[in-house]
């Protein structure tokens, strides 16, 4: 089951999310951006070597916002050590204005249309999303001896 994490349930869900991460054998993350390519030349090519491909993707990824962050914590089953229980959380992120701070970001129209079609880009989504600030202002590192993970907090 996937749990949607938004502004009005984050406080209640945070202890559960933290516990799932701390008990996990491993985690998987997925991100959705407001776009993928700033120019045609920034699109990866089959002829790119790994370093070139990485540089292209890093450059474009740094110019778009993450507007959805998925996290799945896989906890080993107590009954069967060959099985894992998946705890999946979907965080909706969107910049909000804070006083004089008015965040600007880059977006591609095709992604807005896509998000609207899958009911992510709705007015309700923007209204209930977790505030996202630049430079990790809203992130806290959860650490233990096995992992260093970032989880959104307000």
Taking all Cα atoms into account, the compactness measure Rg is 17 Å
The CATH class turns out to be Alpha Beta
Low-confidence runs = 133-154
**The CATH topology is what?**
Nucleotidyltransferase, domain 5
Proportion of residues in β-strands:
25-35%
The CATH superfamily turns out to be Ribonuclease H-like superfamily/Ribonuclease H
- Terminal CA distance reads 24 Å
Order of helices and strands: EHEHEEHHEEE
Helical amount among residues, as a percent range? 25-40%
| CATH architecture verdict | 2-Layer Sandwich
The DSSP helix count reads 4
Nearest-integer average pLDDT: 75
Q: What would you call the structural class?
A: alpha/beta
Coarse morphology: globular
Keywords summarizing the entry:
7 strands; alpha/beta; disordered C terminus; 27% helix; 5-stranded mixed β-sheet; two-stranded antiparallel sheet; Nucleotidyltransferase, domain 5; 154 residues
